[in-house]
Write a structure and sequence with these properties.
It comes from Niabella ginsengisoli. Pfam families: Polysacc_deac_1. This is Polysaccharide deacetylase family protein. InterPro entries: Glyco_hydro/deAcase_b/a-brl, NODB_dom, Polysacc_deacetylase_ArnD. With about 250 residues, this protein is α/β, with parallel strands linked by helices. The chain has a single domain, classed as TIM Barrel, CATH 3.20.20.370. It is about 35% helix and about 15% strand. The protein contains eight helices and nine strands. The strands form three sheets. Strands 3, 4, 5, 8 and 9 form a five-stranded parallel beta sheet that branches. Strands 1-2 form a two-stranded antiparallel sheet. A hairpin with a 5-residue loop joins β1 and β2. The mean pLDDT is about 95.
C-alpha cells in the first residue's frame, strides 16, 4: 500500500469511528480541526532555529500530566543545543513530527498558488527531515506541520503522497502570533493573544481546535507565550476541555 492509499485508509477508518469524530479542512486541504464535536483540543509546539522555551514547556506539560504535539525541523533536530529537548519529547511520550528540514517557504505570500519550490526540492527536504526524526528515535507519524504554516493545494498533495496529512492551527485561536515582537506592525502581546483565544472559546467553543505555540521566539519579544502555558492549560481544563496527543 503506497503513502496516499495508506493515508486515505487511515482517515476513512477515523471517520467511521463515530459521526461525532469530525475533521475540518481549510481551502487548501490542510486539517485545522479534529473531533470538532468533542471538547478536545490539541497543543502544537513548533521549533526551527529557536528553542529557549522547550524545557519550560516540557516541565509544564509534565506537571499537568499532558502529552503535547511537537513539530521540529531537521535543523532543530541536528542542533546540539536542543538535544535534551528532543530526547525528552521522545522519552516522555509526546507526539513528534516533521516541520520540514530547512524551513523552506513553499508558496508566495500574496499569490498562494504560486510555488517557490519544485517537487524534487520539496521531496529532498521532506525526506531529510524524516531521516532526522528516525535518527532521534522518533516515528514519522501521520501528521505534518508546514514551515511558516504556509502551503497550498499542491504541497498538501505532495505530503499526502508521502503518507502525511498536513495540519495547521485553527483559524481564530490567534496564539500563532506569539512569534511577533513590538517593532512589527502585526505585534500582539500576551494579553491580546490570550484575550482572543478565550473570547473565541466563549463565542464559538474550541472543540477540536489545534492551538499553536512556538517553542522559541525572537529575543526582541520580551514576554513569551510559552510562559503562560500553565495558565492556558488550567483555563482549558476549567472549561471542560481535555488536552490530547494527536492520534
Amino acid at each position: 500500500m503506497d503513502g496516499t492509499a495508506s493515508l486515505s485508509y487511515y482517515f476513512a477508518a477515523m471517520q467511521k469511528q463515530s459521526d461525532r469524530n469530525t475533521i475540518i479542512k481549510d481551502s487548501e486541504g490542510a486539517i485545522i480541526k479534529l473531533n470538532s464535536h468533542q471538547k478536545k483540543v490539541y497543543l502544537l509546539f513548533s521549533g526551527h532555529d529557536l528553542g529557549e522555551g522547550g524545557i519550560s514547556i516540557l516541565n509544564t506539560l509534565k506537571k499537568h500530566n499532558i502529552k503535547g504535539n511537537f513539530f521540529f525541523t531537521g535543523d532543530f533536530l541536528r542542533n546540539k543545543a536542543f538535544r535534551e529537548i528532543v530526547k525528552r519529547v521522545v522519552d516522555e511520550g509526546h507526539y513528534i513530527g516533521s516541520h520540514s528540514d530547512k524551513h523552506l517557504l513553499y508558496a508566495d505570500w500574496s499569490k498562494r498558488e504560486s510555488l517557490l519550490v519544485t517537487k524534487d526540492s520539496f521531496q529532498r527536504d521532506l525526506s531529510q527531515s524524516l531521516q532526522e526524526l528516525k535518527a532521534a528515535k522518533a516515528t514519522t507519524g501521520k501528521w505534518y506541520l508546514s514551515p511558516y504554516e504556509w502551503y497550498n493545494k499542491q504541497t498538501v498533495q505532495w505530503c499526502n503522497e508521502n503518507g502525511l496529512a498536513v495540519i495547521n492551527f485553527t483559524t481564530g485561536t490567534g496564539t500563532n502570533a506569539d512569534y511577533t515582537w513590538p517593532q512589527l506592525s502585526n505585534y500582539r502581546n500576551n494579553d491580546t493573544i490570550l484575550t482572543r483565544l478565550f473570547e473565541a472559546e466563549r463565542k464559538e467553543g474550541l472543540n477540536g481546535n489545534l492551538i499553536l505555540i512556538h517553542i522559541g521566539t525572537d529575543e526582541r519579544r520580551k514576554e513569551k507565550l510559552y510562559n503562560e502555558l500553565g495558565y492556558i492549560i488550567e483555563r482549558l481544563h476549567q472549561s471542560g476541555y481535555s488536552i490530547e496527543r494527536l492520534p
